[in-house]
Specification:
Chains A, B: Homodimer. The structure is a homodimer. By secondary structure, chain A is α+β, with helices and mostly antiparallel strands. Chain A has 3 domains: about 160 residues, no CATH class; about 375 residues, Alpha/Beta hydrolase fold, catalytic domain (Rossmann fold); about 220 residues, Jelly Rolls. Chain A is built from 20 helices and 29 strands. In chain A, strands 3, 4, 5, 6, 7, 8, 9, 10, 13, 14, 15 and 16 form a 12-stranded mixed beta sheet that branches. In chain A, strands 17, 18, 19, 21, 26, 27 and 29 form a 7-stranded antiparallel beta sheet that branches. Chain A has a 4-stranded antiparallel beta sheet with strand order 20-28-22-25. The longest helix of chain A has 22 residues. Chain A is globular and about 90 Å long. Chains A and B meet through helix 3, strand 6 and helix 14 of A and helix 3, strand 6 and helix 14 of B.
Chain lengths: ~800, ~800
């Protein structure tokens, strides 16, 4: 498997020498050494766990330079040049590979080629040896980390602890901060909100993990994660709303309005600065933050309104939520007051912060990055938003329908708000907050309007894409192309706006579901983030902005291949149109003329069968006789050339339902019997990555070929028949009335392999996402007025 | 669920006061406080994360004493006595419970009863308040840990770091050692073995994690885990032997002999003592050791011969393996030499060790405890052997048959030895070791004799039970009653010997499979181990030996119920005999007369069906038509009183096979449609237990009621027809010759609930454990000469 590397910065030899000397790896008198001596010395330097010259020397018998010779013996003779085979046999052992089990001593270079590991053809001089070692220390080990980071995990940089300065190597920050003395403290930021309506501004608890030595004299950047889950998660999954109910007439819609919470202005920051007096009991949960904490970046977590230790109510998606998340940055930047405890007596400042803040986090935590970024708050320099929601309507609704995130049938805004209302766990707070909380829950349920599923002013206030003009920070989005929880439309639509702004912007699309990607084999994402944050938050000119293409997309056939694109949009492909035929084919020339029907049974068969939603989906897309019945499906011939579907496929279809209401689902599916990649990455080395020295760990992982399957979902979409005239306003329809629907499916970037077929499936009830009616409805499709457009390359 | 507690030591008030003052919890002038003041103070003391008086006071608003009053307000008034409801409402919040979600403020005591949490009825005086708090600090929190340990996890004992002394509370050691400065070092113990036959004694790499401050002046005990997996695991599962083959004639047996490896005596310890010069790159992997490391116990790991960093060959189960594991204790006790590195130049001593050593670990790691204990090595004071093998024949063979550990079909001694031969990963070592290793592998395969499956001198040398007379240390065994990897016979048979020795001995039997139990809800095992090791290795008179019954057995119906027994043996029950009838009943009065047959198809149907072994087993015991066909099954009436089957059921049966060879399997199964416990404990709070302060974590877990199932395996056993005359020597048999088999099944302690039925199943091929012949064989059972005995209570 290829260990692709984008974060290696090409460096002139002189700078390499300087950097190697700055980390005490290369002795200042290196030119006095013979080539063989220096080779031996540098190997020994790499063995960070051996602490004395004697113990390093004793280790030389554990390495082999060839099938017959150990390194200790090789070093006894003098060599005019170091045989690359000998060098890379040892190098691979240093990188953590096992002879015979991973590679053969007879041909290390063949293995390096296969793994996409860099090597030099010749090592005949001291300078070539130094260059080879510089590159080796900056090469990814078997565990996915750079060798220099593996050495760090064994304590190489402990002698640098306490020197109170950042240290960079190949443009990236090194872990030179004493992780045994990380400062972990809690403060309370005063908000301008009074969401619990007690007449006092809400306090927001903020938890800070910051490097030992960070101070006014050594200010450090902050990585801030706004995590509504940080205070704990109230498990209410058993109380999810029932989805086993009939559709309602969408014209019952009354356009619920967003209603603002009261404002009580906070005190202005003053001059006093007391040290924090409460220690954090939580721990950093996000490996990327921990990795960077060891390298000098503070890690700041706040749950925001309604979460444990904070005042107020959780109002998921609302402007108040954005405000409370943003206010933490204002404190970090020196523009807002915070206190040492909830008595509000002692002010405390983030004087340890250099005023440059980045945001990290996935899902809801990524969502709040988009939210906060749109405020243009001072101090926020960059966001790395993973699997984020850009409009809450696109999370819980679609085209006039209630549409669940994957594996979350019946979940909704009110329940998510309850999940995060963890200040109810503080019994004293609960006494005060409970009645207000209950009223808010009732409002959220009513206004989110599960009855009609329609867009409204309530949802409009939860669409961050209206405010992208406010964004001033640089931008990185990360999303899984198979994320059916936060569906890819969320990242796609915000990307179309962000890419037009005068800010640096990047997009990573991986093959996972609702997942992050900082420890994949196939790309050095963590190293890229190191480079990026050093550039954005420490303002070091390390070329981060030029190191990798704007859009990086992981291939769906080969996990270790990444497509380098300038954009992700329809426009990177050419438009094609497919038509369904009377013979159930899908072809480019000409429609069928028939009107074809299917009878939808809602959720009745599904519930009786007691199978899981994912089982249903797989059987359904495979065309299993029982489950495929309530659908129409049109299939192309086998592809004879590989084609990649890009952007958002669009369906136009004329349909009539036998009731005066109805929902249509459309899926595109790749059909072929073949071994596809695993749905989630396989753990390759559990806990095998050291984030610092005696600190946290992460696990190397990658998508790998899995057992044979028959089909794979590419994309899908859903639409309410009553929105045929206007996506934002329902119309009355009659039973059997034909209406013209026109909607886009979720965006994709999907390579159809040779020999596969594309299937267009038209159906109604989607057991895992739509409501599941209790009544039958017959849907009739007029093929003459039905067509599929998409862009391909 | 009941949080049972055995490790609480009843303590007189005066000692409670002394202990509370020794940990700076109770002020020396406590009698000057009013009752209310002292209540407030002690609550604040408990909130270890708030570091100043002000921040502690600010926290008082987060607690509620009743449905309407917060603690801050309650403390403003003076109370003549503390209302127990108010006290325990606060206490439960301190213990981590959530109001409304876990319990109601209106009735905290009802909840405490349900959870088996201790409480006082009256708190009317200072002394009663102190007593209530002492008990509270020693009460198990929601996360399963004592409240004092939860406080420790928040840094309560940091002020005690560096004081260079142990501190005890309620008989248990407290975490007062600086876990940010754990000393982690590697040394090389010189063995008397030369298993790789290079003419030099093998060096054994030993990894030590020891408390900061441990030294000649502050010697500490050592918990030693002999772990063949510590150096890494060579994944060879794909090369497991095929089990899809016919049985062989067992008389091909040639009684393979154990063959000793060469001896090269090590140097004697001298006077020199250099500090270790190599740092450990591994981490402690066993949470119990980590927990105790924070409390002053060193944690020592060694892989032994053949593992990474060590010389020699892995010879699984052999006396050499025992010797190499034992030699580490000899070094810890001062009786053997070790070096700082593999050059053997600098001697290094375990001068930091007090000479008292305990052993811990599960499976192979538990096995080596039994092995080492039988040597009676000086310094070894106690073993806590979990899920351990006591005879290797009982792991890979049974009654003349090749019988796999669960989920390990085709694995054998040679493959396990390969798995652990991790010094092949040191390329330099591999050059030397590989040829010897290959020869050893060949010998192991031949001598372990997968062809006949018979006992032999080779296996005899791997039966630790022959050497139990040598045991001098105290003994704790832990085993899962559903462990089908290391089957319960291993612990049962060694227990029958150990219980007769003049040593302290205990046995824990839980409801898990191949699992450990140090973080179950239903029992405070970790606290018991703390008490135990303090008693055994620090020689503190804390009553550990009287705190819990000799044998503790978890109930199979209610996970939070533990049976307290004096022994585990047939003798704790009364003997009953059941007979199979012609009508396929199983009853107490009188045999059937018929000769009944079934045709065994070996593994043919199983392989065609492509189902897992565990799926097969469940369908098979349920009597699924297809899978039950090659078996005879006899079933009792429904039990009308609960009965517990104890010890080892015994089957006598007269059987003929249609071939001149054959294997018989017998299972006892409980039949009833009911919700049984999960097979493995459910994780209740992932990482929710702090093992120290900013150290490792563990996860609270417990068996919980799972979905309805139809049947559960109680026990089973297997026997080769050719051993009908002698378990240790095969006989020729003829086709269709009736032979009398008499063998015992795996031991059990299984409560048959009212309404369940007991089924006796006679079959041949056990898809998950026996060989799976390619040929059919008809087995005929003579019911008139078949009976089942067992003991029940």
């Amino acid at each position: 498997m290829k260990y692709n590397q984008y974060a290696y910065v090409t460096t002139p030899l002189e700078k390499e020498i300087n950097e190697l000397q700055a980390i005490d790896f290369l002795p200042s008198n290196y030119s006095n050494y013979s080539l063989t001596e220096l080779f031996g010395l540098l190997v020994k330097q790499t063995i960070a766990e051996a602490k004395t010259a004697e113990s390093k020397t004793a280790k030389m018998i554990e390495f082999a330079v060839s099938e017959t010779t150990v390194l200790a013996d090789y070093l006894k003779e003098s060599h005019d040049s170091i045989n690359p085979k000998a060098f890379y046999n040892v190098a691979l052992q240093l990188l953590g590979y096992h002879v015979e089990y991973d590679y053969q001593l007879s041909d290390p270079l063949a293995f390096m080629k296969k793994q996409a590991l860099p090597y030099k053809e010749e090592i005949g001089s001291i300078n070539e040896l130094i260059d080879a070692f510089y590159r080796l220390l900056n090469t990814r080990s078997k565990n996915g980390q750079l060798l220099i980071d593996v050495m760090a995990g064994k304590g190489y940089f402990v002698p640098f602890w306490g020197k109170k300065q950042f240290l960079f190597f190949n443009g990236k920050a090194l872990p030179v901060f004493d992780t045994s003395k990380v400062i972990r403290e809690v403060v309370y930021v005063e908000s301008d909100l009074d969401t619990d309506e007690d007449g006092k501004s809400d306090l927001i608890q903020v938890t800070i993990f910051r490097p030992a030595g960070s101070s006014k004299e050594l200010p450090v950047p902050a990585l801030y994660t706004a995590s509504p889950y940080f205070g704990g998660i109230i498990d209410n999954v058993k109380r999810n709303h029932s989805v086993d109910e009939n559709l309602s007439d969408a014209t019952l819609w009354s356009n619920p309005q967003y209603q603002a919470a009261p404002i009580v202005s906070a005190n202005q920051p003053r001059d006093s600065d007391a040290p924090a007096s409460e220690e954090a009991v939580h721990k950093g949960s996000y490996p990327l933050n921990e990795y960077l904490l060891a390298r000098g970046f503070a890690s700041v977590f706040a749950g925001g309104i309604g979460t444990r230790g904070s005042d107020g109510l959780r109002i998921t998606g609302a402007p108040e939520e954005t405000e409370s998340a943003k206010e933490v940055i204002e404190w970090l930047h020196g523009d807002r007051i915070a206190y040492t405890d909830r008595s509000r007596t002692q002010e405390t400042k983030a004087s340890w912060c250099n005023g440059n803040i980045g945001m990290t986090g996935r899902s809801y935590l990524g969502t709040l990055q988009i939210a906060v970024a749109t405020t243009g708050v001072a101090g926020l320099k960059t966001v790395v938003s993973e699997a984020a929601i850009s409009s809450w309507y696109d999370y819980y609704r679609e085209h006039g329908l209630v549409i669940a995130p994957e594996a979350c049938q019946g979940e909704d805004l009110d329940l998510l708000a309850e999940t995060c209302q963890s200040n109810l766990w503080d019994a004293g707070s609960a006494i005060k907050v409970k009645p207000k909380y209950e009223a808010m829950q009732k409002r959220l349920l009513e206004k989110s309007d599960r009855i009609t599923g329609q867009y409204s002013d309530f949802w409009e206030a939860r669409n961050y894409r209206h405010h992208t003009d406010g964004i001033k920070c640089s931008w990185i989005s990360v999303h899984g192309l198979n994320d059916w929880n936060v569906k890819p439309k969320n990242v796609y639509k915000v990307w179309q706006k962000v890419k037009q702004l005068p800010i640096k912007h990047h997009l990573f699309l991986h093959q996972g579901p609702h997942y992050n990607m900082n420890n994949l084999v196939s790309i050095d994402f963590t190293d890229l983030m190191n480079l990026w944050f050093v550039h954005e938050l420490l303002e070091v000119d390390n070329h981060a902005e030029k190191q990798w293409p704007t859009v990086m997309i992981q291939d769906n056939l080969q996990a270790d291949k990444w497509h380098e694109e300038n954009d992700w949009a329809d426009e990177i492909g050419q438009k094609v149109t497919y038509y369904p035929t009377d013979e159930l084919d899908l072809q480019k020339d000409g429609n069928g003329k028939a009107k074809l029907s299917f009878v939808d049974h809602g959720g009745q068969d599904f519930k009786a069968a007691k199978i899981s939603e994912s089982d249903w989906q797989y059987k359904f897309i495979c065309g299993d006789e029982k489950w495929a019945k309530p659908s129409l499906r049109f299939t192309t011939e086998e592809y004879i050339h590989p084609v990649t579907i890009v952007g958002r496929p669009e369906i136009k279809l004329r349909v009539a339902g036998s009731l005066p209401k109805g929902q249509i689902s459309v899926a595109l599916v790749e059909i072929a019997d073949r071994k596809r990649l695993t749905a989630t990455p396989k753990f390759l080395m559990r806990g095998g990555q050291e984030l610092g020295y005696r600190f946290g760990t992460d696990t190397l992982q990658e998508f790998v070929p899995d057992k044979l399957t028959h089909a794979k979902l590419i994309t899908k979409g859903h639409m309410n028949l009553q929105n045929y005239q206007d996506m934002k306003k329902p119309s009355k329809i009659k039973a059997d009335q034909f209406v013209d629907l026109d909607f886009k499916l979720q965006p994709t970037y999907y390579q159809m392999p040779v020999g596969s077929k594309l299937a267009l499936i038209v159906y109604s009830t989607d057991q895992g996402m739509t409501k599941r009616p209790l009544e039958d409805e017959t849907y009739t499709i007029d093929l003459a007025n039905t067509e599929l457009h998409f862009y391909q390359k």
